[in-house]
TrEMBL record:
Its EC number is 1.1.1.3. GO terms for molecular function: homoserine dehydrogenase activity. Belongs to the homoserine dehydrogenase family. The keyword Repeat does not apply. InterPro entries: HDH_cat, HDH_CS, NAD(P)-bd_dom_sf. This is Homoserine dehydrogenase. The lineage of its organism: Bacteria, Thermotogati, Deinococcota, Deinococci, Thermales. The keyword rRNA-binding does not apply. Keywords: Amino-acid biosynthesis, Methionine biosynthesis, NADP, Oxidoreductase, Threonine biosynthesis. Residues 238-258 are annotated as: Disordered. GO terms for biological process: methionine biosynthetic process; threonine biosynthetic process. It is an enzyme of class 1 (oxidoreductase). It comes from the Bacteria.
Length: 258
């Protein structure tokens, strides 16, 4: 992250706001960027779910206490899993995703869950802990999934999805990205694009879904931030302080691939 950080720090130090979609920069260089974010100088709606207003959606939940959050935050892995549900192997589905331009020639960031982990880190800082470290996000990808895992999901009345989760365990927040069995009637299992599902008190359950990648969707998120800046509103402020979880436990079983 050294090169992009060198580009943006002089501007931020001069009081110039930053509009960015670079989730890796924000996740991994937070120690340097956090003071500017807390001043309201960093706008990054497009860093999570592109133009779908995930961050703005979560900002409105600050009147409630978030109990748990789960999301499908990577479109490449969603496409691969949807193709595997049709009978393709992981390798076949990945090759098709690369042919269509959905996956990079080196798909590691996507298929190993690192891209989703970057995004989950930003959500954790926005909602529950302004200093949540990226290093504490456990990431497990989908490369070891086989058609047998998806067949097992069918027997359970479930679907396999790469789920980014923020939940309480042992009195602290846990952040994990892993393949999980989702009940077929759950909103996340039915989503055709990126999606976020949140349970909060006293609000209850809330859900948002939409495109999470693509030039048009990302441009929409960046332009929304420009309008936000021009209106005089601050950037996406992290949580004012760390909040302990009020509930514990993960509702969706993990797919064991070892």
């Amino acid at each position: 992250m050294e090169a992009p950080l060198k580009l943006v720090l002089p501007a931020l130090e001069a009081g110039i706001p930053l509009i960015t979609a670079n989730k890796a920069l924000l996740a991994e260089a937070w120690d340097a960027l956090r003071p500017f974010a807390e001043e309201g100088l960093i706008y990054h709606e497009a860093s999570v779910m592109a133009g779908t207003p995930a961050l703005s959606f979560l900002e409105t939940l600050r009147g409630s206490q978030v109990l748990e959050l789960h999301g499908i935050l990577n479109g490449t892995t969603l496409y691969i899993l949807q193709e595997m549900e049709k009978g393709r192997t992981y390798a076949e589905a990945l090759a098709e995703a690369q042919r269509l331009g959905y996956a990079e020639a080196d798909p590691t960031l996507d298929v190993e869950g690192i891209d989703a982990a970057h995004k989950l880190t930003l959500l954790a800082r926005l909602l529950v802990d302004p200093g949540f470290p990226f290093a504490e996000v456990r990431a497990q990808g989908i490369a070891r999934l086989t058609p047998d895992h998806l067949e097992e999901a069918g027997r359970r009345g479930a679907r396999v999805r790469l789920v980014a989760s923020l939940y309480g365990e042992g009195g602290r927040w846990r952040a994990e990205v892993a393949p999980r069995y989702l009940p077929q009637d759950h909103p996340l299992a039915q989503a055709r694009g990126n999606a976020l599902w949140v349970r909060a008190h006293p609000l209850g359950e809330a859900f948002v879904t939409g495109p999470g990648a693509g030039g048009g969707a990302t441009a929409s998120g960046l332009f929304a931030d420009l309008l936000r800046l021009l209106s005089g509103a601050p950037g996406h402020l992290p949580a004012p302080r760390a909040k302990p979880p009020l509930a514990e436990g993960h509702p969706f079983p993990e797919v064991l691939t070892q």
